[in-house]
Structures are given as structure tokens and as C-alpha cells.
Amino acid sequence: MCKQKGLRLSSMTQSAPPVLSVLPTRALVDEKFKVVVENLPPGSPVTLHSLHQSEDKDYWEAFGHYISDHRGVVSVADDLSFGGTYTGTEVMGLLWSMRPVPGSRVGVSWRKKNVCTPMLVNMSVYRGHLAEGFRDQCPLASVLIERWYLAPGVQRIDISEKGVRGTLFIPPGPGPFPGVLDMWGGGGGLVEYRSSLLASHGFASFALEYFTFGDTGKADAELSYFEAAFHILKDHPQVIPGRIGIFGICMGASVAMHMVTESATVKPLCCACVSGYHIILPGFSMRGINELFAEHSKLIRVDENHHQMWRDIVLALMKDPSKKLNMGNTSCPLLLVNGYDDQNCPTVESAEDIYQIMKATGKDHLLTRVQYPGAGHLIEPPFSPHHMATTFITDSENKMILLWGGQTKPHSDAQEDAWKKILAFLQHHLYSNITPKARI
After folding, report:
1. Catalytic (active site) residue 342
2. Given phi > 0 = left and psi -120 to 50 = alpha, else beta, which region is 141?
């Protein structure tokens, strides 16, 4: 409730009220916007604030402290934030520094579930430098913006065939298009937001559901399941059969490495892995992985907040050659994206070991490593909120809070840079040298 209703703004009272503009007001989530406040008195302290209610009904916010220039203008792209959830000149700070509002649930995470609707963000400007109590204040001006994962014209197609379930996103236009098999991490289920964004950038992207299949109660998947998914994508009439890549994060990245090293039928043109590791997944099941981790549970560490860190388990497994994939079998370009502050998995150490294995077999020319100081485990598309630690549920429905790591500013910088490099990698290997014949 506004406590300032009807209150004169004293030094801010002038002929024209403050104007807040955000351009564009409707855009893809990886596009930048321009935030400007005009008609302020020169030298006025103001707070720019962003507020979003997630699909889980949690509120997320970010804010920055600014002082208007001699013209009475604040431009987020040009001016310094002197405090708040971010500081300095940060064009997209009002998004990437979002965090749960005070009093939110412990371990809350943010993830877009329905990609057919936008992420709605309310941008407001307040008088003075505020750090709390935004709901009790009247903003000088507000603008509602839309952030989309799905570009206009992208088709969303439910897939349920050959025992495989997922969602295929087809870019606008006549096609056919290069394809990407997209796999999320150990949380399982169907995660669509990255695939829809890939389709918005011109790739036919198949978001694969695995480990938890809703009403079927299925919790496991064999290598043949992922192979079938690859061929469903390859055989779709809107996909160029010889132009398929694989993209995975966390456990999805490890599944991707299994496919490129162990499968006799899957032959991708390239593979991008974010925060993955080259440990053999027992039975390709969450149950098998939980059992493997349970055998080494004494290696689980906790921080001062009792958040669990699993990286020492994978480090121990890496010491046993029989537990590692033979990365020397890799026959396609491989991109590894990792953060040095990953507290969940030793992904940087895994990448180094992969390099040594591939170098010994003369395959190191296929490997590209991108590693970021200060970045944690969950390296997501640009401007996504940073998750230091969130609640994680295993297939036995045991809840815990896992520490993912990273510091907000360097992690967010990594997300922006990594997404550009991943898109460029996929573009180079899947789109370059496409001839008219290849598109038939």
C-alpha cells in the first residue's frame, strides 16, 4: 500500500512529471534494453527498481541507486549505480542482479516453465536511495516490460513417440533447419526455456524429457533412449539430417559426452557441454547416480549454511580410470564451458583431464575450453538470476540445498559471454557451408 499518496514531491515538483522509458519493452531474454529516466531535478537521488513474480509465486527484485545529471536525466547504460543489488555502469543490472525479496522461502530458484508466456518485469523509479520497503512507497513512474524465450513464429511441438518424450521447437521460416538435442541437468523433467531460445536463434531444438516422466513414474533412461531422441530429431522433416548438434548442462552434459564417445548410431556435428563431467553414469539413471553418490557420501561437504557440496565425490571417481568415459573416442568438435567457482562439480578439473586424454589420442584439436573466474555451476542464458544455492530434490524425494557457487557479478558476466560463444559455436558447425542440396 502506498503511504505517499497525495504527497507533494517538494524538490521534484515541476511542470512535467518524471518519465521512465524502457526500450524495447518487449524483447527476447538475451536482448539488452535501454532504461532512461527524464524530467528529474538535476542532482536528484533516485532508485531504479525491478520486480518480477515467478510462476511459483515468488517475488524477485533488483535495484540501483542513481543521481540525475545536470539535465535531470538518469541513463542506466551510461551512469553509475552507487549502491543496491549492483554497482557501477551495468546496462542489464536490473535483471541479472535479481534476487528473492526479503522473507522469501529458503533455497528458492527461478525457472521459466511456460515459454508461451513472457517474463513480466515491473520497472519503477523511486525518490531517494531506497534499499527496502518498496511496496510501501509510491513510485515516481513505472513501466511493465515483457521478456520472451519464444520469438514470434517459433512452433512448439509436443513429442511422444518411440517411448521418447519432449518438446520440439521449430524456428520461423520455410526450413529445414540445423537441429540441436537439448538436455538439462539432474533435476530431470522437461525444461523448455533454453530450447525455445535456441529456436528463436534459428535452430530446431528438441528439449528432451528424461529421468522423471510425470504420470508414467519412470525415473530411469538407458543410452538407447537418448539415441532414439537423436534420431527423432534427425528424421523430422523440418531438420537437416546431417546438421545435428548436442547441447547439455550438468548431468545433461555428461549424457552428451556418453553419446559422442559410446554410441554407435549417434553422430553429431558438434557438442556443447556446460558444467559437465566425464564420469560414467550408472545405468543412465538418477537412481544409479544417487546410489553411486551414496557410496561416497562421506565426501559430501557442507558450508556454514549447511548447503551441500558434491564436487569431492566426482574428484574421487575421476581417480579411477574405469569410472571415466574414454574421451579419446570423441570424433566431433567439443565445447566445454565451466566456472572456476563451481562448488557442485569439479568441472574445470574434468575439462583439464578431458584435454589430457584427447591430447594423448591426437584429438585435442577438437576441444575448445571456456572457463570463467568467479562463475559457478548453473551457467544459464544471459541476464538470468544467479543461483548461489537452491533446493534440490532427488528421485527419493529427499530435499537438500545444494551449493552451486559463483559470485553474482562475474557469474552474470560469464553467462552473457558464454551464451555468445555457444551460439557462435553452434552457428559455425551447424550452419556454415550449408548448400541448397543440404537443405533438401
Report:
1. yes
2. beta
Residues, the chain, total? Answer: 440
Is residue 353 part of the annotated active site? The answer reads: no
What is the pTM for the complete model shown?
0.92
377 catalytic residue (yes or no): yes
Assigned domain for 179 exists: yes
Residues 119 and 205 in one domain: no
Mark whether 326 and 382 lie in a shared domain: yes
What is the domain extent for residue 336?
155-439
The mean pLDDT of 140-164, rounded to a whole number, is 97
End-to-end CA distance of the chain: 60
Which residue is catalytic, options 250, 270, 271, 273? 250
Average pLDDT over residues 141-153: 98
b/e code 289-318 from CB counts within 10 Å (16+ = b): bbebbeeeeebeeeeeeebbbbbebbbebb
What pLDDT was estimated at residue 23?
98
Q: Which of 403, 411, 405, 407 is nearest to 305 (CA)?
A: 403
Give me the catalytic one of 52, 377, 387, 429: 377
